[in-house]
Design goal:
The chain is mainly alpha-helical. It has one domain. 85% of the residues lie in helices and 0% in strands. Residues 105-116 have low confidence and may be disordered.
Length: 268
């Protein structure tokens, strides 16, 4: 693997992870986010992830594993890795309490209305930042591992992850800003929470690099697809429903799929 590929993959993963810092911009502007737009954006992100996972990443994984292990065994390994990725992110999500889960954002709105206890707000913001770092680790593996071996697949994944990381940054920045009144501090924590993504992706890949083979790459691809599908259905779409009308998020979902389908046709 050449250095340029690793650098490009790291840049994409950093872009996706550090987009949590964009949440601070909404705090800086002191403007309410348009719920319908956010719902549409989250639905769009889910559409990109689901479509690229099931049509491209799973196809790549199946091709690599069937070439190594034959048709039937290769497909079995593909499915096992897919559901293994879902199990991994599901366990991580289960270990994070709802009160500090970055994808349970209802507590942020409550904190905006009841900001009398600054210590609790500060603690909540820091716990959310830590929780986001934990959640972003497998996302970093997914984005980096895919990008370093196939940049055309890594680009849409990084884009979709970046979109859904913005609300996570808001979840960190709002309570810390309310507690301290310091926008710089709110920005610093929202930015730091996204660092787990590029660092985790790079470290995990470097650890796996000596053992990299077509079989391992196929397993990683299928697991990545599972992680992306879980994030879409367990986190993005429910959160999109919270912010806006249900139809809006579905329109975004379909739009994300259509954009990905069109972009793939352009490169055929």
């Amino acid at each position: 693997m050449d250095f340029r590929s690793i650098l490009c993959a790291f840049a994409l993963t950093a872009f996706a992870g550090l987009s949590t810092g964009l949440g601070r911009l909404f705090v800086l502007a002191k403007r309410n986010i348009n719920p319908r737009f956010l719902s549409l954006s989250l639905g769009f992100s889910a559409g990109v992830m689901v479509f690229i996972s099931l049509t491209e990443i799973m196809t790549e994984a199946r091709g690599l594993l069937t070439a190594e292990w034959g048709d039937k065994t290769g497909v079995i390994y593909t499915f096992l890795a897919f559901f293994g990725g879902i199990l991994l992110i599901g366990i991580i999500d289960h270990l994070v309490p709802d009160s500090s889960n970055p994808h349970e954002l209802s507590h942020v709105n409550q904190q905006e209305e009841n900001s009398c206890n600054n210590n609790k707000l500060m603690r909540s913001g820091i716990l959310t930042a830590i929780a986001i770092g934990l959640h972003n680790f497998p996302e970093g593996i997914a984005t980096f591992s895919t990008s370093v071996s196939n940049l055309s697949l890594g680009l849409p994944i990084a884009f979709a992850v970046a979109i859904h990381n913005i609300p996570e940054g808001i979840a960190v920045a709002v309570p810390i800003y309310k507690a301290t009144g310091c926008r710089v501090r709110a920005f610093r924590w929202s930015l730091l929470s996204g660092l787990a993504e590029p660092i985790g992706g790079l470290l995990s890949y470097l650890i796996l690099q000596p053992f990299m083979s077509d079989t391992l790459l196929g397993i990683i691809y299928a697991a990545v697809a599972g992680i992306m599908v879980f994030i879409s259905f367990d986190e993005l779409l429910p959160l999109a429903h919270e912010y806006g009308e249900e139809h809006t998020s579905i329109y975004g979902l379909i739009a994300g799929m259509a954009v990905m389908a069109f972009s793939l046709l352009l490169f055929m």
